[in-house]
Write a structure and sequence with these properties.
Largest sheet: 5 strands, mixed, barrel
CATH topology: Spore Coat Polysaccharide Biosynthesis Protein SpsA, Chain A
Strand content: 25-35%
Number of domains: 1
CATH superfamily: Spore Coat Polysaccharide Biosynthesis Protein SpsA, Chain A
CATH architecture: Alpha-Beta Complex
Length: 275
């Protein structure tokens, strides 16, 4: 039902400098696979085989990764090293990749609006590669795609966070419809603990209906002077309906160095097998 997923990958990755001075943060490897590939695999598993990348300057490595390297293919052809390319070959076979540049960094809402030409007038997923989600069963986007069939409205993925960490996230409150599913009535971007409406924080997985583009276009800059997706979703919730879903799986904040190291150790211990 949902065929496209938008990947905002234009950010600078300043928390990983100097590593990200010339390399996109989305290409940082968790063991032997870049962050963005984990996200693309999750989207494809959910049926979102058209992957729309909102990129920026210095991000050519992402486009090159999702393309064939004829020189490399020729060099290792017929050797045991070919097996190391199995996962990316599978992605290239199943996925379609489109790209547009975000010329200025004006926030997540602006990045999504920049991707409008790649999405068109249809519901779509959004995946932030900084949030690596590991699942033994269906991935987070696949879980949310199933929910969309029932609710047919925008859906945000949430998890409980410590009260003193609400300033790092968009935070929601709402009516609990059933275990783990809420109808959103309030969203606040990066609230102080005393101002947070709950401890239910939005993480980097969304399903959005196409009317969000017009709402973002009318949204004034908010926190940090940026156009915040959270503010647009608050408007959408007030005008219609936005659901929040407490997803199944384990999430790692790979936008921070401690989270990235934790993710690397976890994947190495539980999911990595040498070929």
């Amino acid at each position: 039902m949902i065929k496209k997923c938008l990947f905002p990958v234009a950010g600078y990755g300043t928390r990983f400098l100097p590593a990200t001075k010339s390399m996109p943060k989305e290409m940082l490897p968790v063991v032997n696979k870049p962050l963005v590939q984990y996200g693309v695999e999750e989207a494809i598993e959910a049926g979102m085989t058209t992957c729309a990348m909102v990129t920026g300057r210095g991000k050519r490595a992402i486009a090159d990764h999702f393309d064939i390297s004829y020189e490399l293919e020729h060099q290792i052809s017929g050797s045991g090293k070919e097996a190391y390319l199995a996962s990316i070959r599978n992605v290239l076979e199943k996925g379609v990749f489109t790209m547009v540049r975000q010329r200025e960094m004006k926030g997540l809402g602006h990045a999504i609006l920049t991707g409008k030409s790649l999405i068109g007038n249809e519901p779509f997923g959004v995946l932030l590669s900084d949030d690596l989600c590991i699942n033994d069963g269906p991935g987070v986007l696949a879980q949310m795609a199933e929910l969309y069939k029932q609710f047919r409205c925008s859906i945000v993925a949430i998890q409980e966070v410590p009260a003193d960490e609400t300033h790092k996230y968009g935070v929601i409150s709402g009516e609990s419809l059933k275990e783990g599913i809420y109808r959103v009535d309030e969203m606040v971007e990066k609230p102080a603990p005393e101002d947070a409406p709950s401890n239910l924080a939005i993480i980097g997985r969304y399903i959005l209906t196409p009317d969000i583009f017009d709402i973002i276009a009318d949204t004034e800059p908010g926190a940090n002077g940026e156009i915040q997706l959270t503010d647009a979703l608050q408007t959408q919730a007030r005008q219609g309906c936005v659901m929040a879903y407490k997803f199944k799986g384990r999430r790692f904040d790979c936008g921070s160095v401690p989270g990235f190291v934790e993710a690397t150790n976890y994947v190495y211990e539980h999911h990595y097998t040498d070929i």
